[in-house]
Amino acid sequence: MLERLRARFDPVLRSIAKYLSVNPNLLTILSVIFALPSPVLLYIYTSRLSIMIATILFIASSLMDIIDGAVARAHGRTSKKGAFLDSTCDRYVDAIMIITGFILCKDYLTRLFLILTLVGSYITSYARARAESLGAELRGIGLVERGERVILLIIFFIICYILYGTEIFKTFTRIYVGVLALLTNITAIQRVVKVCRTLP
Fold first, then answer.
1. Per-residue pLDDT tens for 37-90?
2. Can you say whether residue 142 is alpha, beta or left, with left for phi > 0 and alpha for psi between -120 and 50 degrees?
3. Residue 60 in contact with residue 122, Cβ under 8 Å?
4. 2-198 — its CATH code?
5. Which of 43, 73, 92, 149 holds its CA 20 to 30 A away from the CA of 86?
6. Rounded to whole angstroms, how far apart are CA atoms 28 and 69?
7. Which amino acids are annotated catalytic?
């Protein structure tokens, strides 16, 4: 779904990116640097304020991830090294977001769902990387690709900020992350099935 929206907004991103004369690989690395303090912050002291700061950091990280590719294309600096770095940093940010949720949520079932979400997200990413190395195209395949997953996680942290300390916080986190784990793993299965049907 986001792939179609990205195509619509790509001209806008390119026009903005033309004015950003910065190394796109630096922006990619910044996506990890912005996300990195979040689990540390919540581990030291979990509060509504720390959840809010973590959410802002994740939004900033996501913006860096969106802009880096646009800057690279606008200035003719796309490269295989940049693509590899982008994918690698994406995996780090995925893990950091899940770890932050793990620290925030003390409920064991919610933590299990977070682990399943992480597994599903990594299988989803690996399936695409491996399939494309074998000549199969998986862009746009699956219910929850990385863009949707990151948005859903940011929404999760926003609602956690609102509900933290209330009686429904535990119930909400359990249901929300349970659904996210399900959707993420369905996406992984969709990609595996698609590749098995496509490749000889």
1. 999 999 999 999 999 999 999 999 999 988 888 787 777 778 888 889 999 999
2. left
3. no
4. 1.20.120.1760
5. 43
6. 9
7. 90
